[in-house]
Amino acid sequence: MALSSEHITLRPVTRPGPDASRDEVTAFLAETARQIRLQDLALVHFAGAGHIGGDFSATDILTTLYGAVLDVAPDRVADPDRDRFVLSKGHVAGMYYTTLAAFGFLPVADLATFLAPDSKLNGHPNRLYVAGVEANTGPLGHGLPIAVGLAKSAVITGSTRRTYVLTGDGELQEGTNWEAMMAASQHQLDHLTVIVDRNRLQQGATTADTNDLTPLADKMRAFGLAVVEVDGHDHGALLDALSADPVLGKPTGVIAHTHKGHPISYMSDNVAWHHGVPNDEQYAIAVAELEALEAVR
Fold it and tell me: Given pLDDT bands bounded at 50, 70 and 90, which one contains residue 2?
């Protein structure tokens, strides 16, 4: 069965107001992330393609950014003082589109066109097609250099906006990222936050078996970043790390320890799900497991 409008169940959400308690905000983020996973799962299953493992490792990070951190809104996508977000690991486009739809940047009905011929929602995000997308990404190692340029432009124009970029950990094997970190440190871009989706897996193997990044935190500090490590599925920890005041003169590095395919039992930490597509039975199991998360709250 092909992806169609009947598979679009997501409903746009409204961010908690300024008077919401921290517990209310984290509960909102957890439920929104669950709904985003359910919808993204349907996109990948019925479209027959996608990168569901990386989608699910990054969902909580994206939900926290758009649900509680980024100073940007659908009616401010052209505001020069809006915060910027760059999805460097552009292959997790399905999750990104679903997140944008959840927060009103994209009509939810458009999700039914995911990966269809001539669709604006293709396998990698395109800023000319989708409101809220700041940069075309897909070739790994490009997003962080772009984000450095965006952060530097804020300094030049006197803007206090913040720039966030999400990279994969396997992506950090690309040398352009380390050149960009050196430049960010040299220019004291303290309104830049580099988030690493540290799921320890990449296409076909672990990062350790491919080109080991450890000790990653020490390496990033050596390149001039102020680094914090968090559980990348803990919305409270992510909220604290991503909304914290920057260290004066230093870019921030947030290493978010995640699990590819989280929280689906057969996907979690399984490299086969880098770009796997659930069959009908697997899809039903994943839906049941995500629905059970609501029941336990």
Answer: confident
Counting DSSP H helices and E strands in the chain, the numbers are: 9, 7
Q: What does the pLDDT look like over 129-158, one tens digit per residue? A: 999 999 999 889 999 999 999 999 999 999
> Pick from 8, 9, 192, 185: which is nearest to 85 by CA?
192
Token pair of 284 as six digits: 């039903």
Q: What share of the chain is helix, strand, coil (3-state, %, to 5)?
A: 45, 10, 40
- Residue 51 sits at φ, ψ, to 5 deg, of -125, 70
Q: Count the alpha carbons within 13 Å of 156 in the hemisphere toward its beta carbon.
A: 7
CB within 8 A of 163, min separation 6: which ones? 83, 84, 85, 86, 147, 150, 151, 154, 189, 191, 192, 193
Residue 274, C-beta contacts closer than 8 angstroms, at least 6 positions apart: 51, 53, 54, 201, 202, 203, 204, 260
Domain boundaries along the sequence of the chain: 23-295
Question: Are the C-beta atoms of 8 and 39 separated by less than 8 Å?
Answer: yes
**Which tokens sit at 258?**
């995640």
How far apart, in whole angstroms, are the C-alpha atoms of residue 10 and residue 157? 38
Supply the DSSP symbol for 6: G
Superfamily of domain 23-295: Thiamin diphosphate (ThDP)-binding fold, Pyr/PP domains (3.40.50.970)
Q: Name the pLDDT band for 100 (thresholds 50, 70, 90).
A: very high
Global pTM reads 0.97
The average pLDDT across 271-279 equals 93
